[in-house]
Amino acid sequence: MPISQPSSRRLQFAYPPRGILLVGSVLIYLVVGAVGHDPWKGDDAVHIGVIKSMLETGDWLVPQLAGEVFTDYPPLYFWIGKLTALSLGGLLPLHDAARLASVLCGGVLFAALGASAHTLLGVREGESIGATAVMIGLGTLGFLVPFHEAQPMLAVLAALSLACYGLAKAIETPWYGGLLFGAGLGLTHLAGGFNNLLYAAPLALLLPLVSPAWRERNIVLALLGGLLVAAAIAIAHSLLLLAQDPGAQALWLDHELDDLAPKPDVDTRLSKLASTIPWFAWPALPLACWSLWAERRNLQAPAVMLPLMAFLLALLNIVISGGTRDALLLPLVPPLILLATCRVGGMRRGLANAFDWFGMMSMTLFMFLVWVGYLAMASGWPPRLARQVVRLEPGFELQFSLAPLALGLAFTACWLALILVGTRSASRGAVHWSVGTITFWALAMILWMPWIDYGRSYRMVSDSLAAALGEHPAGCIAARDLGETQRASFYYFSGIVTQREIVPNALPCRLLLAQQTGRDAEAPPGDTWRKVWEDRRRGDRNEMYRLYVRDQHTPIRN
């Protein structure tokens, strides 16, 4: 039988939490791990580099990275990052202030998800379905890393979720919902370009075909009006970019058309989806599957049809023309969260108890492992694990501080109190998993942050390179096989700007910065070059950086 709401409670824990408890949970999740560390290898360093370039150039329309036009994303996320950096740059380091753009986008996403779920499902058995949707989102594993780095896809998700809320609201108030839908689509274009519009724009035409809830004349007209609003925003952005910088507009348009084109290797993307989505979308995916099974005779209901169509559109778009990076799979998750909320409280008692038990045991085990790792870093015990810590990040030494220890103990105590004295509820399993995820993440970020930051930052390598360049000032620096992450990191930490080498030795530069990936022997650039510097991140044995100076007697091509 389905689990029911008890008539009495030993402690007044709200399941799911609401009000200040819900807002506090969201803030803890979004802020802890988003600040307090250097730009990290990957998307974080690249996009913080773009925000720094926007601050230095003052150009709001053309994102750039270390002197080159950056076409991966339109400017919306970088606008937000620039504004947070300008507002809080005096209180926080630039990279932390810029990364607060992810906090704002995450807040909008969770607010829109909660509002959509509440509009579609309202309140069941005294529990807010909107709050349940937010808690499932907080517990989704695929959100953990991108929500705590500088990630423009979060602006895309926030805009898409706003458009989805508009579609849900259009059933009650057509023109208000249509306006929200159009605004969300327009922001989606500014955040992610034309390709990301395909995640939501077709819903304006598809939903009236598959569900009678959207077939009323006013609703159809309102959604078509929303499409016109989105088109106006997209056209205005394109025309402004064309007027300011036709060359950049051409580069951006080429990139957009390439994104829209079907890609080969569909089998590769299907394999990636099959291996990634089960953990990436946990626990939303199994809960969504349960909801679909429970509502199999009521698929035309708006609460089922809207997220189902949104998920299928996202899946089709990714399979046909998407990439395989985890960040590009994010649009699959919000529809699954909305689907999961449909019947999260309707699971059979045995299934609900098993899910709850699995969540409590799994998260408690993960937290225990975090504490063991911290103990090894702080005390050297257990010795085998302590040696492994040093082997992974040579030279790292943890500077003990009482504050992280006290915070970690406080988070752990709150978790134990919740699982030991919490009361029965229809959403208990989902709440326990989500609170466990928040607590585990907070523990890892509080106790392990120095070790993670030591391994993922390029600060030491960049400082070493800057010192070497100070001994060999020679104008421009050619870059050979230098990745975007490295180029952005050297620019952010030391102001080093390189020129991408397309044809070997063709640039008129007396300095060459080369990156070698893998463990092969050094491949010198030629007899006319002399190596003057070599370095790598201490724990990374696959990347090596070398600086070469051209022989003074060698003529330079012009």
UniProtKB/TrEMBL annotation:
GO cellular component terms, A-Z: plasma membrane
Keywords: Cell membrane, Glycosyltransferase, Membrane, Transferase, Transmembrane, Transmembrane helix
Keyword Secreted: no
GO-annotated molecular function: pentosyltransferase activity
InterPro entries, alphabetized: LipidA_mod_glycosyltrf_83
Transmembrane segments: 20-37, 76-94, 101-123, 129-147, 154-171, 183-207, 219-243, 277-294, 301-321, 327-345, 357-378, 398-421, 433-452
Topology within the bilayer: Multi-pass membrane protein
UniProt subcellular location: Cell membrane
One BP annotation, GO: lipopolysaccharide biosynthetic process
Keyword Glycosyltransferase attached: yes
Superkingdom to which the source organism belongs: Bacteria
Protein's name in the database: Glycosyltransferase RgtA/B/C/D-like domain-containing protein
Species in which this protein is naturally found: Candidatus Methylophosphatis roskildensis
